[in-house]
Amino acid sequence: MSFIYPSVLSADFSILKDQIRELENNNIKTIHVDIMDGKFVPNISFGFPILKCIRDLTNLKLDVHLMIEEPIRYIDEFAKNGADLITVHIEGNYHIHRVIQEIKNKGIKAGIAINPGTPIGALEEILPLVDLVLVMGVNPGFGGQVFIEKSLKRIGELKRIKEENLFSFDINVDGGVKESNFETILEAGANNLIVGSDVFRDGEISRNISRYKR
Ligand code: DX5
Ligand code: ZN
C-alpha cells in the first residue's frame, strides 16, 4: 500500500515502535510527520525529539509537513533529524522560492502545501521546482476532520496543469481521507494519500489499511 502515507499525528505514542512495525509489515513506504507550532495553525503537535525518535525506529521515508511560521529557520534542523521530504506551505511564506531552494540544497525532496482557501493558481511560479504538491483536504491543524468536497476540483485542476506542462511532481492529498472517499480522490488525480485517523483507528492498523485495496 505504498500510496498511503500514514500520519503519525493519530498514532498511539505509548506504543509507537509497535505501530511503526505494523506499518512496515503492511507495505507502507513513507510516514507523514505533522509539525505544528500553535501559530500557523491553532494546534501544537511535536518537534525534533519525536522526529529523531521515529528516524531511529525505522528506515521508512519520513515526509515532514511543516505547519509553522517562517520555516526557513528550521530547515537545517529538520534535515539533521532525519527528514527525507520537507513540505512547506505557500501561505505566509514571503520568500517561498528561497525556502524551496534551501530544502533542495540539503539534498532533500521539497514539497509545497496549499490550504483549501488558496487558489491553485498561486502555485504557478513554484511548480517547476517542487517534487510534490500537498493539496489540503481540510484546513490544517487537526486530525479527524471532514474532507472538503471542493478539493476534488482543485486536485483535477492541478493535474491538468501538471500534464499540460509535463511536470513530474506528485500530487498528494492530506486531510479527511477515508476508506469511503479514497477512490474518488485517486480518480480526481492524486498519486498518494495522507491518512491519519482512518489508519490508526481502534489501533487496528492492518485491518484499516487492508480496506484501501483498489
Ligand atoms: C492536518 C494534518 C494531517 C492530519 C490528517 O492538519 O496535516 O496530516 O494528520 O489526519 P486525518 O487523516 O485524520 O484527516
Ligand atoms: Zn499533514
Explain how this protein is built.
It is built from eight helices and eight strands. The longest helix has 15 residues, at 151-165. With 214 residues, the chain is α/β, with parallel strands linked by helices. It has an eight-stranded parallel beta sheet. The structure holds D-xylitol-5-phosphate and zinc ion. D-xylitol-5-phosphate is lined by residues 7, 9-10, 32, 34, 65, 138, 140-145, 174-177, 194-198.
Short description:
The protein is of the alpha/beta class and 214 residues long.
Quaternary assembly: single chain
Please tell me the total number of domains. Answer: 1
Bound ligands, named by name, code or SMILES: D-xylitol-5-phosphate, zinc ion
Main beta-sheet annotation: 8 strands, parallel
Strand arrangement within the widest β-sheet reads 1-8-7-6-5-4-3-2
Strand content: 15-25%
- CATH topology grouping: TIM Barrel
CATH architecture: Alpha-Beta Barrel
Which bin fits the share of residues in helices? Answer: 25-40%
- Overall geometry comes to globular
Number of helices: 8
Order of helices and strands: EHEHEHEHEEHEHEHH
Q: What average pLDDT do the residues reach? A: 97
Radius of gyration: 16 Å
Structural class: alpha/beta
The total count of strands amounts to: 8
Quote the distance from N terminus to C terminus. Answer: 10 Å
CATH homology group:
Aldolase class I
Which regions contain 5 or more consecutive residues with pLDDT less than 50?
Answer: none
CATH level 1 name: Alpha Beta
